[in-house]
Amino acid sequence: MLPGATADHERYEVPVSAVGSAPAGSDGSDAAAPEEESSTGDLVLPLAVAGTAIAVAAYGYARRRRRARTRTTPTALPPAARPTAPELDRQARKSLVAADDCVRTSREELGFVEGLLGAEAVAPFTEAVRYAEAELSAAFQLRQAYDDNPTDASRSTLDEIVARCVDAGRRLDAEAAGFDRLRALEQDLTGALGHAEVRFRELTVRTGAAGATLADLGELYAPAASFAVSGQVEQAKDRLVFATTGLNRARQSADLGEPDRAVLHLRAAEGAIAQAEVFVDGVDRLVSALAAAAQAVPDALDEVEAAAVEARERVAEGTGTGVPVGALEGHVRHARAALAAVREEAAAGPYDPLEALRRVAAVSAPLGTVPGAVRLVARCAADAADGFVGTHRGAVGAEARTRLAEARRLLDQDPAEADAFALRARELAERDVRAHGNPYGGRPEHTNGVAGAVLGGILLGDLPDAEAEALTGGAPGSFGGPATRARRGVAP
Hints:
14 helices, two-stranded antiparallel ribbon, globular, 67% helix, disordered N terminus, mainly alpha, 492 residues, single chain
């Protein structure tokens, strides 16, 4: 029998059979025990159960406290709030600019090391740059798709843009320490400094020749033909002035036993030399492109003229071309008028052959043909836009860089479309530079090409005022990603 109680606290008996069988041999004598003994025994089981429950609870509590004090994994935090669409868009744009700057700076410094040590020595770092370029190219393609259809694009596109840019930067960051060990500038600056000085002297000669070349272009072609490189000789000279200061101070610091400061100035000088070379190369490239375009114009005119004649015959015969007869007839008239105007300009005297090819291509597409020389025009426009972005990257934003990347991607697929993207990229880049202005204008410590070095992204951020007399504008960029590219900071 188990003890029980009623609502009025009177005892009652529950037969054992209700909860289990009695032990063998039991005669029920325990039930006849005195009431006092039964009453005391009735408290044993409840008290034991209660005591066990309290002990188990106390042990569990103590164990949880001890586990909480000794755990090594962080306590779960509430999920961070997702950025809004405009915030994510700004983050994607910023990531594209940062990754593009890292790739460009890494490529520039890699060129100096390869020129000194050879391609085999820098092969792992060349591969790292190519990997970063591929990731960045994919990110720019995603950005172009996003810009083309912003209402249909998803947040996942922006997330992937950021992720690819981060991946590109991490690969370059991972190679930065090995790259520094290869250069070993703090241990021996002599070879690197001598190599930079040789490139500087060669470039000084080429810059003078580029000035004379621009003067000749003015006589051979219309003024608009050289507009894309106007001012580039002066900008090359500005970068060379800055490089002169950097090379001199690098050698002085090395002679004084200050290797960190010497490396600081050498890297700044190398960046300026690389950009001066871009300016001069742009002039030489334009000269070659104009000469090739001038030779291609007559053939392109004949090719499109033949296409116009064939189209007119189809109009007369009424044969189908997938284009309404009236529309095709209008295309033919427009093409013949444009071709006649180009022939007249070419015969009249100096003209712009690249622009002439561009106009021929514009009227040829509706006739179902595109001259092969259009690729020459597109490549020239893309090279010019790339040079401008690279030498003004301290001010150029993501939109111009995205259009440039799209122009590069389309060069072999659709040259006419690539040309349009390249022209748009240059237009947007120039707009960004105008909006940026010159924050260093008028300051006496920025008279030796520093403003151009900041605009060109050679120098990153601001240095303390105490360093102004030696190098102003910021730390020079180096091979690496966002986490390492500014490691050549102010020397101690």
